[in-house]
Description:
The chain is α+β, with helices and mostly antiparallel strands. It has helices spanning 21-44, 65-81, 83-93, 95-105, 111-149, 155-192, 209-237, 246-294, 309-335, 340-348, 370-376, 379-399, 425-449, 484-499, 507-513, and strands at 3-4, 53-54, 60-61, 109-110, 356-368, 403-408, 411-416, 456-472, 477-482, 503-506, 518-521, 536-541.
Amino acid sequence: MTVQTKGRGDVARDGDPPSLRPIYYIGLAATAIGIAIIILLNLATPLEYMHGRPTALGQIEAVNLGKRLRGIFNLAFLLLLSCLPLLYSIRRILSPLYEYFDLLKAGRESKELLDRVKRRLINLPFIMVPVNLGLWIVLPVALFFAAYATGQLDSRTAVILAVRAIMVGFISAGVMSLWIESYARRMLIPFFFPQGRLADLDNVARYSISRRIRLHYRLGSLAPLAILVVTLATLQWQLDSVSISAKEYGSGILVFCLVLFSVFFITLSVLNKLITRSIVGPLHSILDALLKIREGNLQTRVKVVSNDETGILGDATNKMIQGLRERELLKDAFGKYVTPEIRDEILSGRIPLDGELKNVTVLFADLRDFTPLVASTRPQQVVKLINGYFEEMSKAIHGNGGLVLQFIGDEIEAVFGAPLVIENHPAAAARAALEMYERLDRYNSKLGEQGWAPLRHGIGLHTGQVLAGNIGSSERLSYALVGDTVNLASRLQGVSKELGRNIILSAATRKELGDEFICEALETVKIKGWAGPVEVFALSGI
């Protein structure tokens, strides 16, 4: 046995281990129900000879009510003694759980023992049925045979009483099984299976809902019918031994039938309630989880307590919830790169990502004199500074409908007009550029309070046609832009430093802006890769 001293694996960590004592109480209660049924049926059985003893002449010597009651309660006492082997059997069956709880108290754990406990817990209701039923078969047969051997009952009466006790034992075993299962599902299984997945465990009993319903339906209908048929047949066999009127005979049968009906109506109501709870309870848990999902709550979880169809459905629902939660996390993460509007358009599939020609405005921003700062500053502090800068700039870009394509070192590449079409995207890009400077001023004020030198950057804007789509390898793709428009926007950002201006526009972008923005025409510049001089403008405000 492998014993670990830390952790509890798949076992819930919170709270003390659940008590096993109620299982004993359930065993005693189910047995008491069975004994009460036997007492009532014996008292209601018609004809005095059923409780008399044979005489030398083959007749039945009647026994008064007091002696009958004493005999019945003596029988009940003997049956109660059967609880001792039942309690002993339960203790033996639960021994793995006691052993595991002792390990937990000692701060240790055995995975091998834990797997054994889980199997025993799932099989527990099914193990208890043959154990309890075996006691209901062996003990009544022994008791009534002893009564026959000592002359207390004739052979036929002993047989009928033994058969009736065995039939009652079927009901008692069924009630005990479902009752123990109900307690295990409420207290024990959640402790040992906090993540559910009972169906993943091998070498355990699997009891489908249809089989459960068929078996208990037959049990609940055949047991009382068998008791009635056997009782009536025995009465008919021995009717010639007693002088009794038809009226008395019929009244006795009617009383017995009414008692039989009442007893089993109550008992089977309990049995049906337990069966219904075992099926409907997990379904309600799944339904509640689905209702919470519909309301947007993805932190809910189905409590899986069985390995039947409802357990498999509960596990599937939990996997679905986990998938939705992960998708929501990805959606939120994607929303950090684009605005929620763009994100929703992409996720809805309304935007083609396999490549399309689009007219857009491209923005490049780059920090100036950042290399000396990197060389003289601790790496952790550099990362903190640049992340704060990117945070502020991204807000300005997203706030104006733009998409940050990538961060390259200390440079930002963004686009306006792709993948989501934006009306007058040059103006949106210009407003974003101006807001970026406002945010940089506020960020520099914070840095100044901490003793840091202010940051400076240059921005280049150009409007034109690009090829936009998912670009990359089969293992990794990214939404990217390809074309001269991208190259010129990047060059203009570099020109901003040479010209000593903050925001540089191309002539194409300036033409689209109209009179809304304050733009100053600058001298033409020579840009590498372009045949002739390029006309540029400086953006200073609105």
